[in-house]
Amino acid sequence: MDRIGLRLRKLRNTAGLSQRQLAEKAFGSEKQHARIVKYENAQEIPATETVSKMLGAMGFSWQDLENVSLVSQEAFSPQDTAEMLGISDDDVRRLEELGHLKAIYIGTRPRFAKSEIDRFLDANKGKQLRLYARFPVEKVKGRVSPSQ
After folding, report:
1. CB count in 10 Å sphere of residue 109
2. Mean pLDDT lowest for which of 20-24, 34-38, 57-61, 74-78?
3. DSSP per-residue string spanning the chain
4. Residue 13 is part of which domain span?
5. Mean pLDDT over the full length of the chain
6. What is the number of alpha carbons within 13 Å of residue 44 lying toward its C-beta?
7. Residue 62 forms beta bridges with which residues?
8. Model confidence at 115, in pLDDT bands (50, 70, 90)?
9. Is residue 94 in a domain?
């Protein structure tokens, strides 16, 4: 059984596109969605050029297509992760930048595995999250204050 259709479906879902939306973006007509249905259901195998168009329309690369099987169903967007942690999207991104929360990247989109979120919560159980200021700070007479 060909798995390319399944991987394309996972990427399409990650991109948040319907089959019709992908058909419009990749082929210029949502009427072409029947092609996508056939590919995703392994009724047809798409040509290399077709896969390239679909990947480009979704903002993904061939490397992303190859790696998609590494991403579990339990991978959450920064927004979903923020809601689970009770913090803002910006704070989730900041935690990822600081290395406190590890992301899996699909293309340029970060996703957070449920196991990573659970690890973070366990490691910080009973602690108040202290996130760094979102604006530059400077020392003024021995104090730290926002720069203007």
Report:
1. 17
2. 74-78
3. ---HHHHHHHHHHHHT--HHHHHHHHHS-GGGHHHHHHHHTTSSPPPHHHHHHHHHHHT--HHHHHHGGGS-S-EE-HHHHHHHHTS-HHHHHHHHHTTSS--EEETTEEEEEHHHHHHHHHHTTTPPP-PPPSS-EEEETTEEEE--
4. 4-60
5. 81
6. 11
7. none
8. confident
9. yes
| Residue 141 structure tokens | 């007479």
Q: Is 1 exposed, middle or buried (0-12, 13-18, 19+ CB in 10 A)?
A: exposed
* Partner residues linked to 145 by β-bridges: 138
- What's the CATH code of the domain at 31? 1.10.260.40
Are 42 and 87 in the same domain? no
45-74 residue pLDDT tens: 999 999 999 999 999 999 888 877 644 557
